[in-house]
Design brief:
- There is one protein chain.
- Helix 2 runs parallel beside helix 3.
- Helices cover about 45% and strands about 20% of the residues.
- With about 350 residues, it is an alpha/beta fold.
- It has two domains: about 20-135 and about 315-335, Nucleotidyltransferase, domain 5 (2-Layer Sandwich); about 150-275, Nucleotidyltransferase, domain 5.
- It is globular.
- Bound molecules: 5'-O-[(R)-(carboxyoxy)(hydroxy)phosphoryl]adenosine and zinc ion.
- 5'-O-[(R)-(carboxyoxy)(hydroxy)phosphoryl]adenosine binds near residues 30, 156, 183, 204 and 289.
Length: about 350
Amino acid sequence: MTAAAQGGGPGTGPTANGEPFVILGIETSCDETAAALVADGSSVISSVVSSQVDLHARFGGVVPEIASRAHVQVLTPVIAQVLVEAGLEGSGIDAVAATIGPGLVGALLVGMSAAKALALVWDVPFIGVNHLEGHLYASFLERPDLELPTVVLLVSGGHTQLVLMEGHGRYRMLGGTVDDAVGEAYDKVGRFLGLGYPGGPVIDRLAAAGDPEAVKFPRPMLNDGHDFSFSGLKTAVVQYIRAHPDTPVADVAASFQAAVVDVLVTKAMRAAVDTGAKGICIGGGVAANSALRARIVEACDEAGIASFVPSREMCTDNAAMIAAAAWWRYQADGPTSLAVGASPNLRLV
Ligand code: KG4
Ligand code: ZN
């Protein structure tokens, strides 16, 4: 029996027999059904992500009820696949972790209930994880030596936040969006341009062939602290297309993206200067964006601070990042009570 199964709590590192501590992570907060096995919070043994994007595409966004049902259908096969790929059975798992928020309540409940059930059956701890903390820990999976404090720019379909990570589990919220999340703006502009859902990857691709200076879109709140606003920019794009329907889509995409990236990079750099951070990491689905990835590295190089841009798979939702965050959470707080509920609006700090 491992240290965890014996009830090892905060500070528990490796298992009692010196074997790596293996966490099964489960992620079902939105439209990705994912499971992963991670050893000692840093080594991914296996990871599977099943995307529901095709189910939601014709509705132009995620439909919560469809998401929950799809999680119910595919979660068991996804978990089975990570176990088979790793050649492990329940007896090789030291803890089971799942996202408990923020996210869609029905979707969260599916993963969380499965994780609790498996923890009971295998007699190992359950660890509830904040999805946003998962995105922060995606960077540590690929760069365990990341120096702290670091500014993390967390940009996804549901979130746009600037966080100062001062230590493991120690965060300071520097700023956030006052209206739409940046991924939401990408998806809404994409829908208006008839590009399907999600809009981000398509706009990114189209922008590569367009002129980023074709249209001078506004840079909302550029010189104004650490908060963001993307709703006005989205409306400016919509109004421009209505007034100039013949503008090439690639030019609109490139100009919209230039405005977004200008704002994100300027604000992340300001946050690093204001806090004296040693570097900047990016995370969340929008961190897969080519222009953002290139510009943040350039800006950090110029400023002489470190930058870290995770692989694209680690930017979008996955369960390896949940298992990695769970490892640190478990060492700090021990197991999570099985009485914990799903928290659709869970905050990082
Ligand atoms: O983190 P994520 O997978 O799910 C949420 O927690 O929201 O992020 C999904 C978001 C979507 O809004 C999608 O359009 C955006 O990330 N996205 C991108 C790119 N790839 C995904 N946005 C801009 N450029 C991309 N390459
Ligand atoms: Zn996410």
